[in-house]
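Changelog note: in this version the structure field was regenerated for every chain. One regenerated record is shown below for reference.
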Amino acid sequence: MSRLSVRKTYKLYIGGAFPRSESGRSYPVTSAKGDFLANASRASRKDARDAVVAARKAFPGWSGATAYNRGQILYRIAEMLEGRRAQFADELGGGKRAALEQVDATVDRLVWYAGWSDKIASVHGAANPVAGPYFNLSTPEPTGVVAVVAPADPLLGLVSVVAPAIVTGNTCVVVASEPSPLGAITLSEVLATSDLPGGVVNVLTGRQSELAPWLAAHMDVNAIDLTGVADADLALSCEQAAAENLKRVLRPAAAPDWAADPGIGRMTAFLETKTVWHPVGI
C-alpha cells in the first residue's frame, strides 16, 4: 500500500518551543523557480513581544555562564549541524555540491566563533595605565537582548549574524529571511537539541516590514542588527525608532561576502565595556 508522507510544519521558535503564530497566519514559501515548498508561520507583533520576553528571561543565565561553556555549546551546535548536513543541503537547493559547500562553511563558521568565546575578553579588554596607585581594568560585557534582521542568505549568512551575538553572552530575537525562512526553522531544531538554553535564540518568520519596526521600538531590546534590511526607508525608520532608548544599531552593509573572513567586528558591536578601579596592595 502507498502511504502519505508526513509534511513538515514550519513554526516559530520562541523560548525553546515551536509555537504557531498566535495570529494563525502563514504565508507560502517558493523556490527560486517559483515552485511551492511549504507554508511558514507569519509572526505577529504579539509573537515578537513573546520572543523578547523569552530572550530577556534567558539573558541572566546565558551571560552568567562561563565563556568556555558558551564555546562548548556553539561547538555542539556545529556537531549537530554536521550530522544533518544532507538535510540542510536538500533544503538549500541550488545544486547539491554548492549546497553542501555552504553547509560545510556554516559548520566551520560556528567552530570559528566557538573558539573565540574565551579569547574575545583578552583581545577587547585592557589593563589601563593610570596616574596613581590603582589597577584600572576594562572588561567587555554583553549588551543584552539583540534583535537581528537576518540577511537573505538562509544559512551561512544567518549563522554569521547570530553566532557572534550569542557567543559573547547576548540573547537574540531573529527575524528570518522573508523569502527563504525554512533553513532558519530547521536550524532552530538543531539549536533545540544542542544544549542551548531556551530563549537564547528566538526565531520569527514573516514580514520584515511588519516585525523589524516593532523590535526597533521595543524598550526591552538593547541593540538591533539591520544587516538583512534591504529597504533604505525601512532601515532609516528602524534607526529612528531605536534611538528612543539609545539602542546600539548595526547598519546594513552593501552586499556582504559571507564566505570572507568575518573578523571580530560583529562580536564587539554588541559588547559594552566596564572599567573598574582597584587600589594596589589591597
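Spot check on this record: The mean pLDDT is 93. The first helix runs from residue 45 to 64.
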